[in-house]
């Protein structure tokens, strides 16, 4: 999807080099090319210029660039108080926007919000997911609002939690809140001979794997672009306690027997929701699925005094230490969730918005104790902050989709 633009851009960059061909002998050209890309053989680079393989935005490094300024002001009213790290005086908050993600073989530019509004008139974009998708939604809203002078209407179309229409452009962004994508509600034993009762279940949450949450079912006929996520709630034993209040999965209105573990339930929900979206979305709608946003609890989980006190991005070694599935650390669900997502999205028409690895470095970018909770918030992100980069990637992929 990103292929067209990525390659055109690479082509452009290479153009001056190729025009030198007639002037220079082969060896010096080789020297020029290889000195620009010392780690990649010439044949491979030539292949990349002409191939349709897209740029891999997920591998790269964070570069400190003090000249970079935030995309929007922290007075943007949509910023949830606990995420407003400048207002709550988190010490490194002013530095957060001065880091730039540099993919290995291409650039990820900051998108131009005014150009974005002008080229996406009569368009509605829906974020469907948990509070991490709301974090990304707020980033996009504040970025666009900072350049837009016309009226903005706040409303709740298609059961959205909130939506804003930039009237000058007839451009709408909405947030639809859903934790599991599928509908769920509390369940308690009622029928002595019921399948779950017979197995000893008394209390729990009924999750209907084949029924979308009412908060977003109508969103599919409303939006032109959709960005889904789910993940955090599947590994949230504080709500879905495996003993006291387990997830109990239902399909076609009947309990699934034998009962499934949450990770198996996630597979079943994705198996139903992905084709559902493909069938019910507006014709031509562009659908994204965002990968898991990493948490950065160190020294314990959120309810065990875990914290995130870093003031700069992690090194690649620290990232592997913290997130490798083999280490089974506190935040291991990050990559586990993605394994489920990748499996479910294979062969679908969804575009994968892969923000996981680039975000894994950013242990410094959470509200931590500035989140205003009893415990550190090492899960959500400060705004302005890293979800601004997620939106740069989203816009990059969206534009290449329109052009492709
Ligand atoms: C505004 O945009 C929506 C799509 O988001 C479209 O359905 C509607 O017709 C547009 N309204 C006008 C007045 O152009
Ligand atoms: C991972 O660690 C948790 C406790 O932190 C433990 O309950 C679980 O069994 C471990 N899983 C594996 C596969 O080792």
UniProtKB/TrEMBL annotation:
Transmembrane segments: none annotated. Residues 108-396 form the Trichome birefringence-like C-terminal domain. It is found in: Membrane. It is a single-pass membrane protein. InterPro entries: TBL, TBL_C, TBL_N. GO terms for molecular function: O-acetyltransferase activity. GO terms for cellular component: Golgi apparatus; membrane. It holds the Pfam family PC-Esterase. Its main location: membrane. Residues 54-107 form the Trichome birefringence-like N-terminal domain. It comes from the Eukaryota. Keywords: Membrane, Signal-anchor, Transmembrane, Transmembrane helix. Coiled coil: none annotated. PANTHER family: PROTEIN TRICHOME BIREFRINGENCE-LIKE 13, PROTEIN TRICHOME BIREFRINGENCE-LIKE 9-RELATED. Belongs to the PC-esterase family. TBL subfamily. This is Trichome birefringence-like N-terminal domain-containing protein.
């Amino acid at each position: 999807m990103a292929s067209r633009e990525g390659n055109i851009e690479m082509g452009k960059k290479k153009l001056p080099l190729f025009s030198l061909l007639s002037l220079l002998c082969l060896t010096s050209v080789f020297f020029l090319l290889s000195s620009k890309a010392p780690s990649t053989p010439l044949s491979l680079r030539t292949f990349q210029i002409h191939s349709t393989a897209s740029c891999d935005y997920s591998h790269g490094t964070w570069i400190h660039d003090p000249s970079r300024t935030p995309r929007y002001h922290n007075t943007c009213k949509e910023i949830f108080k606990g995420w407003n790290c400048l207002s709550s005086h988190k010490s490194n908050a002013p530095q957060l926007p001065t880091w730039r993600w540099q993919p290995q073989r291409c650039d990820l530019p900051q998108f131009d919000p005014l150009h974005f509004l002008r080229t996406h008139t009569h368009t509605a974009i829906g974020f469907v997911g948990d509070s991490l998708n709301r974090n990304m939604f707020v980033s996009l809203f504040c970025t666009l609002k900072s350049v837009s002078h016309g009226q903005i209407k706040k409303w709740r179309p298609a059961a959205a939690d909130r939506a804003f229409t930039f009237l000058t452009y007839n451009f709408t962004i909405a947030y639809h809140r859903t934790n599991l994508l599928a509908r769920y509600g509390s369940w308690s034993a009622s029928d002595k001979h019921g399948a779950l009762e017979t197995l000893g279940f008394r209390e729990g949450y009924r999750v209907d794997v084949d029924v979308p949450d009412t908060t977003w079912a109508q969103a599919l006929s409303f939006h032109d672009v959709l960005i889904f996520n789910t993940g955090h709630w599947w590994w949230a034993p504080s709500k879905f306690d495996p003993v006291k209040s387990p997830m109990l999965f239902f399909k076609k209105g009947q309990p699934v027997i034998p009962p499934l573990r949450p990770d198996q339930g996630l597979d079943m929900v994705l198996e139903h929701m992905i084709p559902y979206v493909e069938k019910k979305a507006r014709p031509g709608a562009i659908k994204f699925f965002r990968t898991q946003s990493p948490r950065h609890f160190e020294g314990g989980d959120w309810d065990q005094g875990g914290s995130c006190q870093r003031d700069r991005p992690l090194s690649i070694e620290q990232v592997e230490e913290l997130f490798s599935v083999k280490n089974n650390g506190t935040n291991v669900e990050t990559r586990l969730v993605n394994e489920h997502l990748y499996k479910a999205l294979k062969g679908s028409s969804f575009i994968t918005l892969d923000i996981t690895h680039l975000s894994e470095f950013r242990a410094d970018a959470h509200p931590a104790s500035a989140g205003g909770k009893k415990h550190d918030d090492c899960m959500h992100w400060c705004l302005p902050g890293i979800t601004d980069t997620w939106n740069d990637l989203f816009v990059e992929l969206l534009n290449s989709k329109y052009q492709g």
